[in-house]
Specification:
- 19% of the residues lie in helices and 40% in strands.
- With 151 residues, it is α+β, with helices and mostly antiparallel strands.
- It folds into 2 domains: 80 residues; 52 residues, no CATH class.
- A 5-stranded antiparallel sheet has the order 1-2-3-4-5, with helices on one face.
- The C terminus is likely disordered.
């Protein structure tokens, strides 16, 4: 799948859900707006050597291989369906650490990956906020088998 096809593929799927708001700045940048106050924006940036995917301030780098492109597309679907959520830590309103959590089949939230800024005040008490989009139905991500494996 080439870079232009990635954005076109995502936009084609997004158009199936009229409640989803998105902005395609150019062929290499797509922003999907999250649920107001409770969700997070998703930003997809395509580049010649790698692609970047943002969940709010959290981000990943993906190679342009088919395997990593598919993984990136899965994360987008998980973020839109509410299967992935963002756990944000802040001190006095300033975010410093974010953890992407994934929901398992039993409804448990499991930490997936964490990123943080340096030079934080370790002795200050943190506030924790969970951001989650539930814009597309979760059931489209599972096949019809009894195992409920992801498609």
């Amino acid at each position: 799948m080439n870079e232009e096809n990635i954005i076109q593929t995502v936009v084609k799927e997004l158009k199936k859900y009229p409640d989803i708001k998105f902005s395609k700045k150019n062929d290499n940048e797509l922003k999907i707006f999250g649920r107001e106050n409770t969700g997070f924006d998703i930003l997809l940036l395509l580049g010649g050597r790698e692609n970047m995917l943002y969940f709010g301030p959290f981000h990943w780098h993906f190679d342009n291989s088919e395997e990593e492109t598919n993984e990136m597309l899965d994360y987008i679907a998980f973020g839109l369906a509410g299967i992935a959520r963002l756990k944000g830590y802040s001190i006095k309103g300033k975010g410093y650490k974010w953890t992407v959590q994934m929901q398992d089949q039993d409804g448990n939230w499991l930490d997936d990956e964490t990123m943080a800024l340096v030079n934080i005040k370790f002795n200050a008490e943190s506030d924790v906020k969970y951001l989650q989009n539930e814009i597309i139905p979760k059931d489209i991500l599972y096949d019809d088998s009894e195992t409920n494996d992801l498609k």
